[in-house]
Structures are given as structure tokens and as C-alpha cells.
Amino acid sequence: MIDVTIDDDALSMLKQTIDDRMEYKNKHNIKSMRISKKETDKQVWLRGLRGEYALSKLLGISNKGSLRHSKGGDRGFDFAVNGTTIELKTTKGWNLIVQKDYRRLKGDVIVDAQDIAPDTIRFRGWATKDEFYDRCHQADLKYKDANGSTTRDVMNPEDLNPMETLEEHLHARKDTEMGEPEVP
Fold it and tell me: Which of 65, 112, 158, 170 meets the CB 3.0–4.6 Å disulfide criterion with 96?
């Protein structure tokens, strides 16, 4: 596991991004697709953006793409590094949970992050899409997702690859350049 701390300036920038997204959503009457009924869109979006920022900091790549998709979601993945797309799931919970529909996991790699403090994200590990579906189990979580299903694919953190091996996996790909350089 690897913990990444987010400084106050970055947190302020991420909160402003969320405020901008909220304004756009309200102006255009965009329906929320979030599952959580206990948290607002702003809380869920901020957790996700904090995770994306922390992963970009950890890998030394740009998070501009994360900040860009302000019109209602991302492209199905959060980053692309050396031709490998990465989908990040940042949760408060213990397990890595993906909606049951196979098409919901669009990244080549999934990274599991846990929100452990307002300024700290813990990366618990990663898996390729195939590894995720080989190692996950189905669970009825008793609450409906955006498609009305209560069943999800769930992976225990101990079944993930160690986070320390992700960069090696990403750098093994030679078909494209490393993501955009990090902007300070």
C-alpha cells in the first residue's frame, strides 16, 4: 500500500473544479448517475478527483485529462500511460467494487484507492481487467446501481497486485509515449 498526501493548494483547486462541474450540471439539468444516497454529487466527485490527483502525483503524469471531463463523466478510463488505459476507483469502503455489466470496466488496468483522510489517499493495489474478472466474486450489495442492479463484481484488496509493481507494468508497454509530463 502507498499513501499519497494532497497539499492545501491542490485541494482548493480540486474543490473549485467540483464547483464548476456542479454549476454546469445544474445549468444543463444533468441527471446524477451516482449510486450513493448518503453523499452529494460534490462529495463523490471530490473523492474521485482527489484519487485521480494522487495517482497522477504518484506516477508523475498529468491530471489535466481528469480535470477536463467536466461535462458529465470521463471516457470510461481516467489515464492512459504507454498505451495502457487506467481506471481508478476511489472509495471509503474496504473492497474494490465495479458495476456488474462487463462494459462498465473500460480501462486495461484498474487501480484501487481508499479515501482515508481529507488530504490522504491510500493506493491498495491494481489489476488488469482480466485479472479483475478472474479474481472477483459477485455480491448482492442490496442497493441499486444506475442500471437498477443490486449485484456487483467485488474484489478483495488482498487479491490485488502490489501497487509498487504498477509502474513496471506501465513502462513495459512500448507502443506510445508516457502520459503528458506533470505540470507543477
Answer: 112
User: How many Cα neighbours within 13 Å face the side chain of 158?
Assistant: 0
Angle at alpha carbon of residue 91, lines to 88 and 94, rounded to 5°: 115
Which stretch of DSSP H or E encloses residue 89? strand 84-91
Grid cell at residue 134? 478472474
Which distant-in-sequence residues (6+ apart) come within 8 Å of 162 by Cβ? 125
What tens digit of pLDDT does each residue of 82-109 get?
A: 888 898 888 887 766 676 665 567 789 9
pLDDT 10s digits, 28-84: 776 665 555 677 778 888 888 999 999 999 998 876 665 555 455 556 677 888 888
Distance CA 104, CA 76 (A): 8
d(CA 171, CA 165): 10
Residue 105: helix, strand or coil by DSSP? coil
Residue 113 pairs in a beta bridge with 90, 123
